[in-house]
Amino acid sequence: MQMSHYGALGFVALVVASMTVADLVSPPQAATLAPRAYLERDDAPVHGPPPPKEILPDGLAILSALSAPTTTRKLSATFQQLGYDLNRVASGDGGVPRVLLTSFPGDIDKVRETKLRKTVFFKTVLPLVLVVNEEIRAERQRLWRLRYQRDTDQDLDAVDRLWLMTMAEKYDVEDEDIDTLLRRADVIPPSLALAQAAEESGWGTSRFTREGNAIFGEWTFGKKSGLTPERRDEGKTHKVRIFDNLLDSVRAYANNLNTHRAYRELRLERAAMRHRGETLDGHALAAMLTRYSERGPDYVKTLRSIMRVNALRRLDGARLAADRDI
Question: Would the pTM count as exceeding 0.90?
């Protein structure tokens, strides 16, 4: 008796899951590791070896502000150790280290030097944004390949059909519509993401960011854990969503812009920019975010002001560094 269509996909899902678990438990030895950089623990001795750091299965490094307490100044020194300079990044002379913090330094809200606080903030958030965009680009590449196969009447194998089902669920698309997926699975210009992160998190100092890693202040109404706003209007039930780490917060932000009906105009304009062969323009796309905040057009003005004052558009061409670039 032949296995049903969904039965076959279920079998493939089991095999894929088994392979994924195997990779997580014992990642390939050939994986590229992040540059060696360490944060000194606050309670660490002056001499001796640096504390170990976690290495994710895909080779990304996490310097944890929770497991290895640090300060904003120590983090700034670590970035300097890596040769991480935003001016070099903007000019194309240097890449952004693949170093991801799980949380902001605990004292960032107490730093009085505006330049130091801003620089550490941008250097912390930029690699997170670039990693999420890298993940999305990989999805787009596979979607384009599958679209080509479909347009040339080639059958998709079970693994690809299963993956399309997963993407359709992730991006809230019916019937695994590849064309709609390509409009939704697209990157967020770093200038736009950095400006929103700064505004929504108070440059990393807000309560929601410090207690819940919520850089973008996303609301939740369901069973997901959240922090209750202190000034929530009477009768409202929303909370601000909590994340295990900053990377998950950026992933949720990108998915929100890429799926929510409130940002349909942003997605259409982004697709139009691609159709015209233009570079994605965060300053222009900000105009489609009037519904992100109750402040409407004033919110857009604030975002554009942050972009202008901090010259964020120059970072739209930023790239993640390979080991050899450090």
Answer: no
